[in-house]
Design brief:
With 118 residues, the chain is of the alpha+beta class. It has one domain: Zincin-like, CATH 3.30.2010. The chain is built from four helices and five strands, in the order H-E-E-E-E-E-H-H-H. The strands form two sheets. It has a three-stranded mixed β-sheet. A two-stranded antiparallel ribbon has the order 2-3. Strand 4 and strand 5 form a beta hairpin. The protein is globular and about 45 Å long. The N and C termini lie far apart (42 Å).
């Protein structure tokens, strides 16, 4: 499924993505998760030693969407792949807009759980 999605993307997206795209079996709970409700679906890595790469956590998808339809999972996977490519493209351009959006999402998540505890 991941290969099919990646094949539809413009070749320019892959410029300098020397580490490629990898799917790994593990589920990756988010380190700031309050319960068992927040998993990392994918990550963009940019390091001097390892280069630029995207990792997709298959186990996280199964954990969150395992009971959903094949088509739903495909659409969610595509959305996640595009999200990680946006990190890649913004990184190359020296931008951080998506990082800021991700931080705002996490603040809302923490506030939602803080409100439930009070």
């Amino acid at each position: 499924m991941l290969d099919e999605i990646v094949e539809t993307l413009p070749k320019d997206f892959f410029r300098d993505l020397n580490g490629g795209i990898h799917a790994v079996e593990q589920a990756k709970p988010h380190p700031k998760a309050v319960g068992d409700d927040l998993y990392i679906l994918g990550e963009y890595h940019n390091s001097r030693q390892m280069g630029r790469s995207i990792i997709i956590y298959y186990g996280s998808f199964i954990r969150i969407y395992g009971n959903r339809s094949h088509e739903f999972i495909r659409n969610r996977l595509r959305k996640n792949v595009l999200h990680e490519f946006r990190h890649h493209l913004e990184s190359m351009a020296g931008e951080r807009d998506l990082e800021v959006e991700d931080q705002i999402y996490m603040e809302k998540y923490k506030n939602k759980h803080r409100d439930k505890q009070t």
